[in-house]
Each structure stands twice: as structure tokens, then as C-alpha cells.
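Example is below:
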Amino acid sequence: MKTTFTLPVSAIVGILSCGLANAADTGTINFSGTILAAACNVVVASENQTILMGSASNSALSTAIGATALPTNFNISIADCPDDPTNISIRFAGSADAGNPTLLALNSGSVASGFGIALFESDGSTRINLGADSVSQAVPAAGATLNFVARLMATSVSIVAGAYSATADFTVIYN
């Protein structure tokens, strides 16, 4: 009978010692960041804008997925930056299009469908994917106007005609 009690006790002691060895593991987490002297201000007229993109025929987009129409310029003005030039970029966010998540989706209630809104740098050809940062730009203390282009971009060759709208939020990113 003594052997019967000795084996289970040995097994329990062995199991407990393994658990104790694992519980002794440690690690380190380092946190770091930057405190900015001051942030730039978004000019009031740039905070809440409505950009009228105009009208296009559905045939302008139905030629191929990725076809674009109605390039429309818009800008975001920044002022009252720190004394030293500050490098900033803009990150656009919003609901992603189901057919192409790099595009801004149309708002619910839009009658038109089969496309999303593509965002571009001021050159009109360099894409800014939804959720990604625009090209970094130096902004002097007086401020600057950052220029962008929006275009309709087909996500289907079946474009449904009708009214549409889309909504993007933006964040100024300090580099």
C-alpha cells in the first residue's frame, strides 16, 4: 500500500514543480512616444466641407472595374503651426466600399451604386487608400493648404444611375 500512495504523491509533486517553473517567466514592455510643442489647427472652413462632384453618365464608369470619372479638387487648410516647419500628412477614414476596401463607400440611402470614391494626391494620379496616410508635407508656422483630388471609381461594370453621397473623416498626422 505504501507504493500506491507514493506514486500519486510523486506525480503531483512533479506536476506542481513544472507549473511553478512556468509561472516564473518574466518580460519587459517599453513605452515611448513624442510630445509635440504644439499642433497645427485645421482652418474652420476645412473642418466640415461638402464637395460637389457633379454629374456623369453611368456609361462613363461602366467600361471597366477601376474606371474613373469626375475628378474633383478639394483641399484642407492648416494654420497656426509650431514655429519650426512641421511635417504632416492627412489620413482619410470612413466606411470602406465592399467591392474595393481602399475606396470610400457610398452612404446608405444612395440610389446610385457600383462605384466608390477614390482619393488622390494633388497630382491626381497618386492614390491615397482609405485609412492610409497621404504624402508627408512640410508645413510652415503660417500654415498651408493641402490639395487633393476625389474621383468616382467603378467597382462593377453594372453602374446604377441615381443620386449618391459619401462621407470621409480626416485626421492630421504629425511626422
